[in-house]
Amino acid sequence: MPSLSYQEIAGESDTPIVEQMLTPNALRQRRFRERQKALRDADVTLPKSSVMAKGEKEEGR
């Protein structure tokens, strides 16, 4: 009987081997950092009314 490699037995994996070896928390941290970087790079600014505290009135109104 010919010897089989692990890849022949297990088949191809959808996720890269590096992600399989990382802990779920490390993956969560990486996704968070990627989202923060994307937000920073997109330079998304919120309208002034959405940033104001509840009950605070906008000037001129």
Descriptive overview:
54% of the residues lie in helices and 0% in strands. It has 4 helices and no strands. The radius of gyration is 24 Å and the shape is rod-shaped. The relative contact order is 0.07.
What is the rounded Rg? 24 Å
Strand content: under 5%
Question: Tell me about the biggest sheet?
Answer: none
Supply the helix-strand structural class.
mainly alpha
**What fraction, in percent, of the residue positions are helical?**
40-55%
**Got a strand count?**
0
Number of helices: 4
Run of helices and strands: HHHH
Unreliable sequence segments: none
State the end-to-end distance.
Answer: 84 Å
Overall shape: rod-shaped
Arithmetic mean pLDDT: 75
In short:
The protein has 61 residues and is mainly α. The chain is 54% helix and 0% strand.
List keywords for this structure.
54% helix, 4 helices, mainly alpha, rod-shaped, 61 residues
How does the SSE layout of this entry go?
Blueprint: H1 6-10, H2 17-21, H3 24-42, H4 48-51
